[in-house]
């Protein structure tokens, strides 16, 4: 491809990359993707469902990624792509069109790199990045501006660290790691102890009784275990993975963490897990493979969640969850049980009105709902 064609892709090449069926003019040049109503003549319109029909008429796209069975000629297009699963194809399309962060090749003059650090071939280090003694940066890694990588940390090949990512000491990260701005990997775990049995320990054991414990100050338990992260892991903006106390906190290959996720010390996360925004996992809990936690889920410390568990948003998991279960609520129970609980709660006001009326249900006021 010539410099003039940089950032442009022939539609036929996109079709080949996606394994899509191409109809029409495969020689069209595509520079981006857009929603149908906002698409320009060089955009590939993403009309993945019939609901986007009106948008195709409003936009200026000459080519579109269409739902199966759509008539591209009827929509005034010059070409179309068809795939069995459009949303999956979208993942590959956006990867092809994403230029990535603007990190110039080589090492920026303002970067501070210890002489004992090892930088892999083809790595790019952005402005004001700091890399400590003995750190290892893999081949073709991209380290954004203002990142810091502490002494002895190891980052694999083809990693991408966006601006302001912090990698602490005793952190080992596999290949193709992605961290969004502000992510912190390997900070100290939140672990403290009192000289004598604390009120928290007493309450936890008794479920409410302080047992005459006295007030005491807290003493830090330092984190010596670090963090170990597998291959193809992604960590969202302002997320934090704490170092383990003695053994490492572990994140399995293929796992994806959204923004504002907190993984506590000593946690073990399996392969291909997905943690959505604001999930918090307390220390020493173990999660199996392919666990999905919806936004704002909380996981208690020292519990086990089995493989393939799915937790709906805002669920609070206080006890072990067997493999394959779908849970919801606080405390989390089977999803179908929580739905029945929610239905029952909605009936409570009506039930209370009936009880207050000695068994006679009060007539609702206009606009009033039960």
- Structural class category: alpha/beta
The level of helicity is 10-25%
- Major β-sheet profile: 12 strands, mixed
Strand tally? 40
Separation, N- and C-terminal Cα atoms: 65 Å
Number of domains: 2
CATH architecture term of the largest domain: 3 Solenoid
Number of continuous helical runs: 5
What is the average per-residue confidence, as pLDDT, rounded to a whole number? Answer: 93
Strands of the widest sheet, in order across it, are 8-11-14-17-20-25-28-31-34-37-39-40
Looking at the structure, the CATH topology of the largest domain is: UDP N-Acetylglucosamine Acyltransferase, domain 1
CATH class of the largest domain: Mainly Beta
Gross morphology is: flat
The portion of residues forming beta strands comes to 25-35%
* Radius of gyration based on Cα positions: 27 Å
Which stretches of 5+ consecutive residues score pLDDT under 50? 1-5
For the record, what is the CATH homologous superfamily label of the largest domain? Hexapeptide repeat proteins
Give a verbal description of the structure.
The structure is a single chain. With 370 residues, this protein is α/β, with parallel strands linked by helices. The chain folds into two domains: 3-97, Udp-n-acetylmuramoylalanyl-d-glutamate--2,6- Diaminopimelate Ligase, Chain: A, domain 1; 106-333, UDP N-Acetylglucosamine Acyltransferase, domain 1 (3 Solenoid). 15% of the residues lie in helices and 26% in strands. The strands form six sheets. It has a twelve-stranded mixed β-sheet with strand order 8-11-14-17-20-25-28-31-34-37-39-40, with helices on one face. It has a ten-stranded parallel β-sheet with strand order 9-12-15-18-21-26-29-32-35-38, with no helix packed on it. Strands 10-13-16-19-24-27-30-33-36 form a nine-stranded parallel β-sheet, with no helix packed on it. Helix 2 links the parallel strand 5 (43-47) and strand 6 (63-66). The longest helix is centred in the C-terminal third of the chain and has 22 residues, at 335-356. The chain is flat, with a radius of gyration of 27 Å. The termini are far apart. 34% of the residues are buried.
